[in-house]
Amino acid sequence: MSDRAPLEVLIVTGPLGAGKTTAVNRLLKAEVAAGRRVAVLINEFGAVSVDGTLVDAERPELAGVENLVNGCVCCSLRNDVVATLQAWCDQPDGQRPERVVLETTGLADPTDLLDLEVEPALAGRLRLAGLLTVVSSLAPVDHLKTKPLLHRQAALASLIHLSKADLDPSAAVAWEGELRAAFRHIPLIPTRHGLAPEGSPDPWRGDLRPVPEGWEPSGGPSFAEARSLTLHWDHPIDPAALEALLLAPPESGELLRAKGVCAFAGWAARNDGSDRWAFQLADGRLEISPLPLLADGSAPACAAVVIGTGLDATQWKKALRALERAPAGARRKAFL
């Protein structure tokens, strides 16, 4: 066993679109500001890492960034998680992270991550510092009862952040009442833009509890049932058409989440030189935010990720491709 302090790992979980990446960016900035070496491990359900792009856009001085896509850290990608954490543990002093933020996909059941401390390659080298669950106050409040995966993510938390509390105060009050009634022992903090009020509990000092005996697999839309599709754009897209597509009820299936990076037709580059924008669909709201150039001066690639159950992948790819507005004289890809 090494005599070095164990690597501290904070798991951040919660439903799709709850605001996990915003919370993660706040955590990373706070760690960098405190002078600690921090790394981030991001798991996304899709072929490209949109959340990783959002973290990169913040450009904190991180000790490591790893994106795990097209799988789930609690099952199909668990070996990759262990290998990444082991590699960080093996790094020499001065390069080795002191802390790691592990952000799961919203479809992940965090149960199977709570035994990372006893993983043979990590035993004695890693300490789980807490499990932060982010829940959106804009989601229907009955989801705590009707979405078993959400209930499970909250039940295992050492701290719950109720996000977007400023966008609908009455909904936030309703959610706070439901969560406090269901989980009296878990600290609950309403947040705004991923920021907890001063004096709030430290996520890194979590009180992790053992998984209840007889814990049954979670239900509802799960990693096994959901499907994602990814499409890379070659040209700017129509902003009004994007809004119409994502906010309209799908012809079939359920749209759980949509996000991506794009340039908008007719929108000039901003003063920072970037013409890229991030879009996120969650809780029936479409949010658009500016994306700066990457650290090397290049622009993030344009792509869309759509996640859902029972969606017609062919129709969705056609619809996403139809959003492109190719400049005069440029060819637009035909979808075959």
Descriptive overview:
With 336 residues, this protein is of the alpha/beta class. The protein has 2 domains: 7-205, Rossmann fold (3-Layer(aba) Sandwich); 227-321, Hypothetical Protein Yjia, Chain: A,domain 2 (2-Layer Sandwich). It has 8 helices and 12 strands. The strands form 2 sheets. Strands 3-2-4-1-5-6-7 form a 7-stranded parallel β-sheet, sandwiched between helices. The model is unreliable at 219-223 (pLDDT under 50).
Overview in brief:
The protein is an alpha/beta fold and 336 residues long. It contains 8 helices and 12 strands.
The CATH topology of the largest domain is what? Rossmann fold
Measured as a percent range, the helix fraction is 10-25%
Topology, number of strands: 12
N→C terminal distance? 56 Å
CATH class of the largest domain: Alpha Beta
**Rounded radius of gyration (Å):** 20 Å
How much strand? 15-25%
Characterize the main sheet: 7 strands, parallel
- What is the averaged pLDDT score? 86
The helix-strand sequence is EHEHEHEEHHEHEEHEEEEH
Dominant shape? globular
Strand order of the largest sheet: 3-2-4-1-5-6-7
Oligomer: single chain
User: What is the tally of helical segments?
Assistant: 8
Protein topology:
Layout: E1 7-13, H1 20-33, E2 38-44, H2 50-58, E3 64-69, H3 78-90, E4 99-103, E5 126-136, H4 143-146, H5 148-155, E6 159-163, H6 169-182, E7 188-190, E8 227-232, H7 239-247, E9 254-262, E10 276-282, E11 285-291, E12 303-309, H8 313-321
Parallel strand pairs: 1-4, 1-5, 2-3, 2-4, 5-6, 6-7
Antiparallel strand pairs: 8-12, 9-10, 9-12, 10-11
